[in-house]
Design brief:
The chain is mostly beta strands. Helices cover 0% and strands 45% of the residues. The chain has 2 domains: 161 residues, Immunoglobulin-like (Sandwich), CATH 2.60.40.10; 88 residues, no CATH class. The protein is elongated and about 75 Å long. The structure holds calcium ion (CA) (4 copies).
Length: 258
């Protein structure tokens, strides 16, 4: 079975199907090539901001997904092989140095050189992200425990792919500024606030939980760590508070957040 071929730490390499050429090596460097036919398990960690368990392609390229891959995430492969040996292998998700389609494989991870056995992949939750869904790849498996894909049955000569760990990091961001002419558009002569305002975000997330967050800013602001959800249109705010992302009057001048 043909599979993904990639060069490791070798941006100068030329990669076409089943060929990785022109790797240059100097003393002290470690480079290499991976050929997908080798027994291996591959997958990726990515931002699944809409929490649907699917890595949305960016039409028309079917690459550069807006749901970016996440490199630097720790993963562990554990299991027992047919020789009754315990297997425990660590990996870190990375971006392959592949001159073609590299953005498709941001957050990629793999283990090669495996023998028949039953395995599980464990993900270490990346800091700064909300936990998302796991997706089982081509070798099957179970997702009954969070951040673990278990019961992956691996047979020789088979490349199994598509084991995915989704994480979320939705952001609402904007600016507060003094809208001198009250038209809701920031002209070049309209400045940030002269004193910080409190910006309030309220709503209901996709777990049905009420969300109430505040930040203080006289210019740019952002709310991070958000699950998918909705924000109702605010009807009123306490004095000196802005309801993101709508408008509020302050000190007789109109202040907008965008
Ligand atoms: Ca998605
Ligand atoms: Ca996770
Ligand atoms: Ca998870
Ligand atoms: Ca204006």
């Amino acid at each position: 079975m043909d599979g993904l071929d990639i060069a490791i730490n070798a941006p100068e390499a030329s990669v076409t199907n089943d060929q990785v050429r022109a790797i240059s090596v100097t003393i002290g460097q470690t480079k290499g090539a991976l050929f997908g036919e080798k027994p291996s398990i591959t997958g990726y960690v990515y931002r699944d901001d809409n929490d649907n368990g699917a890595h949305e392609p960016n039409v028309p390229t079917f690459c550069n997904s807006p749901e970016l891959g996440l490199s630097g995430v720790g993963l562990q492969l554990t299991g027992v092989d047919v020789y009754n040996r315990n297997v425990s292998l660590n990996a870190t998700s990375f971006t392959p140095v592949n001159p073609v389609l590299n953005h498709c494989y941001d957050g990629y991870f793999y283990w090669g050189g495996l023998v028949t056995g039953t395995y599980a992949i464990l993900e270490t939750q990346p800091v700064g992200y909300l936990d998302g869904r796991e997706t089982v790849g081509t070798g099957g498996g179970l997702t009954t425990t969070n951040d673990i894909i278990s019961r992956i049955v691996f047979t020789p000569g088979v490349v199994i792919t598509g084991y995915a760990f989704g994480e979320q990091r939705n952001i609402i961001a904007g600016n507060v500024y003094l809208d001198g002419n009250g038209n809701g558009v920031r002209e070049s002569n309209e400045s940030s606030l002269d004193a910080p305002a409190t910006i309030v975000l309220s709503g209901i997330n996709n777990l049905g939980q009420a969300v109430l967050m505040t930040v203080t800013s006289s210019g740019p602001y952002q709310f991070t760590g958000l699950r998918r959800g909705t924000t109702p249109s605010p009807k009123s705010s306490p004095p000196g508070h802005l309801m993101a992302p709508n408008s509020w009057h302050r000190r007789g001048r109109r202040v907008w957040s965008q």
